[in-house]
Amino acid sequence: LVAAEEAVSRLTGHRTREAAEAYGFHARLLMLLGRFDEAIVPGRIGVELAQEVDAQLELSRAENALGTSLCALGETEEGIPRLHQAIEIGKRAHLGADAVRGYINLVSSLKTPIDDLAEAEAWARKGLAFAKERGAAGSMVDWLKMEYADVLIRLGRLADAEDMLSEVRTGWSLGVSGQYFEVSHALLSVIRGNV
Fold it and tell me: Cα(58)–Cα(24) distance, rounded to whole angstroms?
């Protein structure tokens, strides 16, 4: 975060792809830290700069961070279309992992705070179909599978959730991916009475 703040500070006033990247990355870090209100301004600047210099990767990432932050703040009427935009930009520009990132944050936002589990499931399926079609793999796809598993748990479809988690390859890893994986398995156990 300190490095991102330094990059934004050094690139303030620049109208370049690098400036768009710096602002979008700063917004993304703030979003990931749950500092959604602080992510809005750098997210908007990142989107504006990326549009100005036609930087599609940076635009997809900035739209993603901005849309997710807006949804978390309850501004879903603006946030959801921005997440759709992030996905479409990623698809058009052949940015497989970034399109998948858009699906992840869309599913997450539909799940919480919107609580539209049917729509969240539909988009999780679309995202996984896209990943399979494009041959995308790795941590982004694993995270989408864990988001989908969480939707299935909330829908009470525990066997389906367990099947989805069995496809995730990051269960052994350290960090937030491994944590999400273990928490999902623990939640399944508790729901089934295996406290």
Answer: 7
Question: pTM for the full model?
Answer: 0.94
Structure tokens at 142: 């694993």
pLDDT digits (tens, 9 = 90+) for 98-139: 999 999 999 999 999 899 999 999 999 999 999 999 988 888
DSSP letter at 169? S
| pLDDT over 60 at 171, yes or no | no
DSSP string for 96-125:
HHHHHHHHHHHHHHHHTTS--HHHHHHHHH
Torsion (CA) 4, 61, 93, 144 in degrees, nearest 10: 120
* Burial class of residue 26 (count of CB atoms within 10 Å of its CB; 0-12, 13-18, 19+): buried
Q: Which amino acid is at 107?
A: V
**34-64: buried (b, 16+ CB within 10 Å) or exposed (e) per residue?**
eebebbbebbebbbebbeeeebbbbbbbbbb
**What is the average pLDDT value for the chain, to the nearest integer?**
95
